Amino acid sequence: MSVQPPVANFSLIPDSAPFSPEQRQWLSGFFAAALSPLVPPGGVVALPATGGAAPATDTANNDDAPWHDPSMALADRMALAEGRPIAPRLMAAMAQQDCGQCGYNCADYANALAAKAEDRLNLCVPGGKDTLRMLKTLAPEIGGAPAAETAPAAPAGVVLAAAPGRSREAPVAARFLSRRRLNGEGSEKETHHVEFDLNEAGLDYVVGDAFGVFPTNDLGLVDQIIAMLGASHLTEVRGRPLRTVLAEEVSLSPAPDSLFELISFLTGGAQRAKARALATGEDPDGDAANLDVLAVLTKFAGVRPHPEAFVEALEPLQPRLYSISSSIKAHPGRVSLTVDSVRYIIGKRRRLGVASTFLGERVKPGDAVRVYVQRAHGFALPADPATPVIMVGPGTGVAPFRAFLQDRAADRAPGRNWLFYGHQRQATDFFYADELESLKKDGVLTRLSLAWSRDGAQKIYVQDRMRETGADLWSWLADGAHFYICGDAKRMAKDVEAALVDVISAHGGLSAEAAVAFVQAMKKAGRYQADVY
Question: Which CATH number is associated with domain 172-214+319-374?
Answer without folding.
Answer: 2.40.30.10
